[in-house]
Amino acid sequence: MKQIWTIFLMLALAQASFGEPPDSLWSRTFGGSNDDRCFSVRQTADGGYILAGYTWSFGAGLDDIYLVKVDGLGDTLWTRTFGGTNSDNAYSVQQTTEGGYILGGSTNSFGTGGNPDMWLLKADADGNPLWNRTFGGSGGEYCRSILQSSDGGYILAGVVCGYAYPDFYLLKTDASGNQLWSRTFGGNLDDWCNCVQQTSDGGYILAGSTDSFGAGSDFYLVKTDTSGNQLWSRTFGGNSSDICYSVQETSDGGYILAGSTSSFGAGTPYYPNFYLIKADANGNQVWSRTFGGNFSEECYCVQQTSDGGYILGGYTGSFGAGGGDFWLVKTNANGDSLWSRTFGGSDGDWAYSVRQTTDGGYIVAGGTRSFGAGNADFYLVKTGPEYPNVGYVTLVSPGPPDWGYSLHHVSGSLSHLAFTNFCSGTIGSVGGNAEAAGWTVANYSDSIVFTTSTPLTSGAIDTFWLSHPYCSDYVTWTAGDSSGMIEGPLPVELTTFEAFAGDGQVTVRWRTESELDNDRFLLYKRKAGEEDFRVLAEIPGHGTTTEPHDYAYEDRFVQNGFTYEYQISDVDITGRETIHEQIISATPSRSIAPVDFALYPNYPNPFNPTTTIRYDVKETGLVSLKVFDLLGREVATLVNGKILAGSHAIVWDATGLPSGVYLCRMEAERFVETRKMVLLK
Questions:
Q1: CA distances for 213 relative to 184, 185, 384, angstroms
Q2: 303 and 226 in one domain?
Q3: Which residues contact 529 (CB under 8 A, 6 or more apart)?
Q4: How many C-alpha atoms does 172 have within 13 Å on its Cβ side?
Q5: Conformation bin of residue 308: beta by default, left when phi > 0, alpha when psi is -120 to 50
Q6: Which of 4, 67, 409, 518 has its CA 20 to 30 A from that of 274?
Q7: Any idea what DSSP says for residue 200?
Q8: Residue 433: in which H helix or E strand, if any?
Q9: pLDDT (tens digit, 9 = 90+) per residue, 106-162?
Q10: Residues 438 and 456 occupy one common structural domain
Q11: Are residues 554 and 639 in the same domain?
């Protein structure tokens, strides 16, 4: 069985890994003539996106919560506003397990009145409100981050002001939004929480900034248990302002934090730069990185990506079109910058949220003054995959009549597999894990297309069935950005087929590596220049075998000086014939025998993994042709037996052997010669 896929796509993958930023696929704006700004975006189960923020253009009063649902191309499906006559904002949105949405923010229209309260809203899949809850007192409470917890309830994080300085505020509810408990963390000065995530141990990690602890205004990281009790806290930063906006638990059990720093970086001390910190599972700093120029950069979001690196999103005043632009920075797992990309126009554009999407690209959301209906609008940008969507196909269950294939992931995401160049009447179907994962099939006259709404992003999946009689030994396939050809197991796998001319005769020799239900061979012959072959001989096969077998036929119906061409086919026990494409030729002559024994340099040399070895035999007799490594160990026997006088060639396949220098040694009567060959993988 042989498989081939296009090499240039593997080169594209290598190129992407060396720092090529992804292209923008599309961008969209949403809003009216007043100020509208998006703070949170998530990809939804249907492949679209949900956006949340505030709007001054629509709604009941001042600024209201603005919820926008779009499809996978960014086209609006519906919009909703929530709020009263005063100021109401959403800073975080998430799709819930049942397909609806949970929003977290603040409200001045409802609650205790006066200062804002935390506001929790639940909507169904169409954005219709189901219930809402407010939490807080008279001092002012703000929700900056919300997520559905593993028990089906919700965790809210933000700020409680009370009557003094603000503190971190963590609040837990049940699935109906009823408060179960709340916790505060902080000191005697300002402490602002901007993000919360549930950790793998069921507890929570909170991140923001503190003036109460540390060297100045520092990153503040707090770890709690499942009940919100503090386990430990850490600060990071220098003598100037350092603000953390985003935290995530990483695949190694540690944490990645992102925000801005005026203590370090190129803009110090007047302008902040992106600030990225990696901490271990106990919150101890492993490394830190800054990114930016001589003007302001603020990072509002970080996420670990599928390759183990990190994507950072925010705005930049140092780069881009001017006025402040969306800025994405991609790093490897060690925080080293791989690429950066700006999006925006000549006015201000701010990215507050970035997520890696299922296709390996990114969705970025924020606000824009460069585009849209006026003032500031929601701004949504979709990029292509950072790496090309590359996969390959293998045959896992040969027919006939049912041929089963497996799709293997290399990079990006794979949601489309198409087969072409198949036999007439072929029907595709889905089975195994592919069927369980939601893959479906569409059968057309010139293609069979398998698709899914749950892309393959790692490993392999099968089975994709093609049902057809055996009429071709290959099909072509396309998977994502990659394509190739896969050959099935031939009824007879032919490894050599060659002709040797003598005086008034031509000897045709061939070798099989394996045979499947092989009844016989048909040897075809024609004189050079003729159009049609005719059957020269029938030679019995070996049925079904996995052992190599050598065959030979001596054709004495030839004339010296004329060239003859030969082709071979195999016929299975049902009478089905498979013609092998290779055509060989020979010209018999009285002077055909070499004047001496000779072993010629192999070609190509160096080689990988096959090379052709030519040798001359002066007179019919015993010949040995063997390959040794430099330690003198025999690694292959190519010829060992009686060989007819003439010029010969054999192909050596060094698959399975390491790179290195090998020696080819020929022995015949009193002749011995050795040639050096270089295998370079």
A1: 15, 11, 42
A2: yes
A3: none
A4: 21
A5: left
A6: 67
A7: T
A8: helix 432-436
A9: 999 998 867 899 999 999 999 999 999 999 887 889 999 999 999 999 999 999 986
A10: yes
A11: no
